[in-house]
Amino acid sequence: MSNKHPDFTNSADFAFLDSGTGGIPYMLALKQKLKNARCVYLGDTANFPYGQKSVEQITQCASRSVELIIKKWNPRTLIIACNTISVTALESLRKLFPSLPIVGTVPAVKLAAKVSKNKRIGFLATNASVNSPYSKKLIEDFASDCVFFNRGDPELIDFVENNFFTATKEQIEQAVRPAVDYFKSNGCDTIILGCTHFTHIAEEIQKVAGSGVKVIDSREGVSNQAIRVENNSRSFIKDGGLSSFEDMAFYCTKAGEKEQKEYKKLCQSLNIPWGGVLSEAE
Fold it and tell me: Model pTM?
C-alpha cells in the first residue's frame, strides 16, 4: 500500500461519516460491490462518542462534519455510517443539505424479524439508538410480533474505538461476553448490531454467541441502497477490474500522537490510505 493518499478534491463518489472508526466496514462492503468507486471516510473523533449526546448535540456535530465533507470532497453521495446519527438526525441533515443525496444506516430490525425463529431479539447499540423514537417505530412497523431486549453499551463501543485494533482475540471475546451473556440469558436467538462499531467485532460476537444465535447487521442493505441512490443521481462509472485501494482514504477530526499511530496501524491492516486529521477550519 502506498503511503500517499489520493486527491479527492471535488471528486469523491461516496463519502462516509461516523463518530469514529465504526463505519469503516460499511465502506469496505461497498468497495466490494463497486471496486472503482472513489470513497472517502471521515471519523468525527473530536466529538466521539455520539451515543451519549442529546439530539440537538448530535445534529450540530453531524452537520458541521457534513459541511466539512462537502467543502473538502463535494461527494456525489453521503453515507451516514452511524446508526446514532441516522436514527436521530438523518431527516434534519437532509433538510440542511437538500442537494446532497444522503443514505442512512439504521438497525436491521426488519431482517431480524425475518430470521428469528423464537421472536426474541437482542438489540445492541448506543444508548441514543436504543432510546430513539425512530428505533422504536422500526420495531413497531416491522417486528411487532417480537420481544426485544435492548442493551446500550457505551463501554463496548469505547473498547472498539480505542482498544480493539491492538487487542488479542481473547481480550475481544472477553469484552463482548457481557453483552452476549445478557442476550442469551433472555433466550434471544438473534442479535442486531445496531451500532456500526460492532461490525468490527461481528465475528467475535458470533463466536461467543454460538451457532444457535444469528448475529446480523445492515452492511448489505446500506451498500445496496447507496448504489441505488448513486445510480439514480447520475450514470455511474462502469465497474470492473481489480479493486484499487488507492481510491479510498480515512480521515478523522481529532487525534493525538498516540491515536494517529493507532489509526495508521488500522489503515495499514485494512489496506486503506491514512488521510490525516482535518478540522473545520480547513
Answer: 0.89
